[in-house]
Write a structure and sequence with these properties.
Elements lengths: L5 H25 L1 H9 L2 H33 L2 H18 L10 H23 L11 H26 L25 H4 L1 H12 L1 H6 L12 H15 L4 H31 L4 H29 L1 H18 L7 E2 L2 E2 L6 H31 L5 H13 L4 H13 L2 H4 L2 H13 L9
Antiparallel strand pairs: 1-2
Helix pairs in contact: 1-5, 1-6, 1-8, 1-11, 2-3, 2-11, 3-5, 3-10, 3-11, 3-15, 3-16, 4-5, 4-8, 5-15, 6-12, 6-14, 11-14, 11-15, 11-16, 11-18, 12-13, 12-14, 13-14, 13-18
């Protein structure tokens, strides 16, 4: 069999980001989330329900991520795990087709959504752990940035296709460019918008082909009797040693908070804009296009800055930008911008929120790329999958805090704007802990 070239391995790895990004872009943020708000009707109820559903998924991911990573370190069969979690991704995505306007079962739809989200997150843990195999320590920042940028382009392409040919307006029944939904989909039952689930599943199946053809696991699979027991022991041993590796400990804590806050922005951006600014699915989609273009450009540029300066200052700068946005969105509504009253037909709130979208996209793309580079610098050689399992744990151990706290605060105050204030606290905690992290990790 002809050996796969290094360039193909890189592109195969990049294609995971391209294939999986639509779950974030189309389902979590820009199409399906505001559609859920339309089905529920009330923005406060939708934001609270979305928070509790995603929070429940976060608890499951937090509990299982490090154990799965440790098991993969023992067996080496990362591709088999990726295939299994890819199946969950596709099943969950396809299931969202049944979010019908006149027969809407919120609990069932949230369960299907969480199944797909869990599949995406766990598959990401195993693909991220392959990053050190793709280049030298000096190259991985650029490689990671290029991967994120390519993924953003995939999400952008899927979003444009969805808006142009499928997602119909609830009032006109037409797509963003004035067409009826393709394939004869019925706009009256919102089949065009509901097609976002099958489209996301088909997209993943199609574009994961280069990954499975070109990416090979350099660590051969071995028989692993008692793998679960050894994995649990390995995770416990790693966790018990964390106080002896203060830089890694601090970084996992920092990333736990700032990534949770960033995910909160992604999870609630669409529902927030739909409720506070009264945007339609198409309006939120345009917001998404702006954010994704910004994210793709800056993820690519950020990879070179990361390679030149190292990931720590890059991450800290991004946290400052994101914290500014988290504070600012509270002061933008249909009636006012930063306390200045505007008329009902003013476009200033919309333009301001579009600017925030560009900032979230830019800083979010850079910080996610730089964060996985930083994890490589902090991890122990030979325990990379377990380390990324812990990184997944750090990203998910508190992943229920942002959505659940937003759900609780929103429900208690009856305000979507006040409801997102927990994000500010999470960004601040992440920034403070990052000050304790050594750029090159523990000795």
């Amino acid at each position: 069999m002809k050996a796969v070239s290094h360039a193909k391995r890189l592109w195969g790895w990049f294609f995971f980001d391209w294939a999986s990004q639509p779950y974030n872009t189309l389902l979590i943020t820009f199409i399906f989330a505001p559609y859920i708000k339309e089905l529920i009707g009330d923005g406060v109820q939708a934001q609270a329900a979305w928070g509790f559903g995603i929070g429940a998924g976060g608890v499951i991911i937090a509990l299982l991520a490090p154990v799965l990573g440790a098991m993969a370190d023992h067996s080496g069969n990362r591709l088999a795990w990726i295939k299994m979690f890819s199946a969950m991704y596709v099943i969950g995505a396809f299931g969202l087709w049944w979010a019908m306007p006149h027969d809407f079962n919120l609990v069932a739809i949230l369960i299907l959504f969480v199944i797909g989200m869990i599949g995406m997150e766990f598959a990401t843990i195993f693909t991220n752990s392959m990053l050190p195999d793709l280049g030298t320590r000096e190259e991985i920042g650029r490689i990671s940035g290029n991967g994120w940028a390519f993924g953003y382009l995939g999400g952008l392409s899927a979003l444009i296709i969805m808006l142009a040919f499928f997602a119909e307006s609830g009032t006109t029944g037409k797509t963003m460019i004035g067409l009826d939904p393709l394939f004869g989909l019925d706009a009256r039952t919102r089949e065009g918008t509901r097609f976002v689930g099958p489209l996301t599943g088909f997209w993943y199946l199609l574009f994961m082909a280069p990954f499975f053809m070109w990416v090979k696991d350099p660590k051969p699979a071995v028989s692993t009797p008692g793998a679960v027991k050894r994995a649990l022991a390995s995770v416990w041993g790693t966790l018990s040693r964390l106080p002896n590796t203060p830089s890694l400990f601090s970084y996992l804590g920092a990333s736990m908070f700032y990534r949770d806050a960033l995910n909160g922005m992604y999870f609630f951006g669409g529902i927030y804009a739909a409720g506070v600014l009264e945007w339609t699915v198409v309006d939120v989609g345009v917001f998404g296009i702006i954010a994704i273009i910004s994210g793709a450009i800056f993820a690519w540029l950020g990879g070179y800055v990361d390679q030149r300066m190292g990931p720590k200052p890059v991450i800290m700068g991004c946290i400052i930008v994101l914290a500014f946005v988290a504070v600012s969105i509270i002061f933008v509504s249909r009636d006012s911008v930063y306390g200045v009253a505007v008329g009902p037909r003013s476009t200033l709130p919309d333009v301001t929120f579009y600017i925030f979208g560009a900032l979230i996209g830019a800083a979010g793309g850079i910080i996610q790329s730089a964060s996985r580079t930083m994890m490589v610098f902090q991890a122990r050689p030979g325990q990379m999958v377990e380390a990324f399992g812990l990184y997944g744990l750090a990203g998910k151990a508190t992943s229920f805090i942002a959505p659940i706290s937003i759900g609780i605060v929103t429900a208690m105050t009856g305000s979507q704007q006040i409801g997102v204030t927990p994000l500010i606290v999470l960004f601040a905690m992440g920034f403070l802990l990052l000050l304790l992290v050594k750029p090159d990790g523990d000795e």
